[in-house]
């Protein structure tokens, strides 16, 4: 027996040496497992961005989570997503980690920024936007203070997303309608619109009709949950306004997630909104598409327009060019070679284009050119998967 204190005893069960060894082994296993789990989990960098403004006396501390490779890939620039709800940070950072870890597909790597809880100055700006028609002090703060502070401190690529749920979703729409240039894309989940909230319904028809500048994305959604019933009439009015008055500058989707829970709405809207926003980045043009049928120049022009006029960052045409080339390999190998060569003129480091070029050279008996192209493919990537693939292919060509 083990004496613990005065007059209290704890009896240990009889334990054999063999049992102790088993317990020790199990404890060691769990310890190793926990260490291993910690090693494989991404170590996100989260920090505070303090923003000063003449609009209030105290600085505002925004929470920022950086993409996992931000500190390593020092030449890379990133999308920014902003949300006014402080509790949204964890779900946004977690969703982004999952949806971007596979090569930024479907969510391009993004800097997540969320607002603090309880800042009086920021709260008054939001209140003014909601209650006073024409009050744009909140948008002034975004344009003059917050967004420049983000761009100054972090490597941003100019593409910004404004995300929000319920009342904050109403402010997302208020921002889109009154100053669309602040953000490139807007995601509004279950927006509050009734009782003249931020005067969205009053101003939307005229301002959407007259929207200018670069194209903007809007994903807006609601459901038939109990908490959203009072907003459904207003949502229907906004839906009609968008469908009737939005001009070609607004690329929008309107979704109903009927049958789902209220607190699930921002998760659904963010996930599908991200898919919609970056769909053109990830979608490969089919070889028989109208654009691809016009040849490599048309494909390159299509992606240049996406890069310059829609996203503001480089959207590569490589996969769509390769899709066209691959469609020609059997029936017209010389044309396929021409497509791959055009691809390499536009993207000299496109290792996949070198690999495809090597394959068609080999298929047409041009082994010297095939070996040279495969060597170029190998030299153009340091990715272990592709290095292994190209090394094996090169060995086959050299037999």
From TrEMBL:
It comes from the Bacteria. This is Uncharacterized protein. InterPro entries: AB_hydrolase_fold (IPR029058), Esterase-like (IPR000801), TPR-like_helical_dom_sf (IPR011990).
